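During the no-cost extension, the postdoctoral fellow (Dr. R.K.) reprocessed legacy sequence entries with the updated structure-token encoder. One reprocessed record is reproduced below for audit purposes.
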Amino acid sequence: MTKSIIRKTISKQRNLLTQQYVSRESKKIVENIINNLEKIVPNFKNQIIALYLSTNKEVETKLLIKYLLKIKSIILCFPKINKDNNSMEFIEYDDNTKLQQNNKYKSISEPKSDKKVIPQIIFTPLVACDKFGNRIGMGKGFYDKKIQEIKQNNQNTTLIGLSYDFQLTDKITTSNHDQTLDFIGLPQYIINLTSLKKDKNSKKNI
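Re-encoded structure tokens follow.
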């Protein structure tokens, strides 16, 4: 299946979810991440971490945000979209940061401030993903472009996708600009893709 067909099929399935399902499965996913975060990213407590404010029945992040805000050594940030040039930046967030509705994408809330940071860990929303770490978003490419930019500036970034079970799909056909995930957090387990990515990179360097 093409990306557009997968996106349309999974988006339709997600839109039909009950709030009870979203809350229950999101809690499982987030608790799984919290219980294993130190194992998969040992130094996470000294990192700049990007999260998203969930919308349209995405995996809910409020419990994860609450948990990370309690760890004072962490700098938390949220994405902010620039409607003029369709770019995205990560903006520092704390309990005192005010949020606003994005002017173009009305369902998205984002920080009012413009204090930009470069995250070392990025939790990404997704429509679908596969066991190889390939990810399908909403089709605008905001995350792929920004992550590519960060990597081009020699910044190491760990990418973690949060996914319901039904969003894990067959192999996704990718483009050159698509960024692959390092980990996928699911309700019952976490898929670790770091060794797979290392193998790919070593083959490129031969």
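The two ends are 32 Å apart (CA to CA). Helices lie at 3-15, 19-40, 62-69, 142-152, 194-205. The remaining legacy entries will be reprocessed before the final report is submitted.
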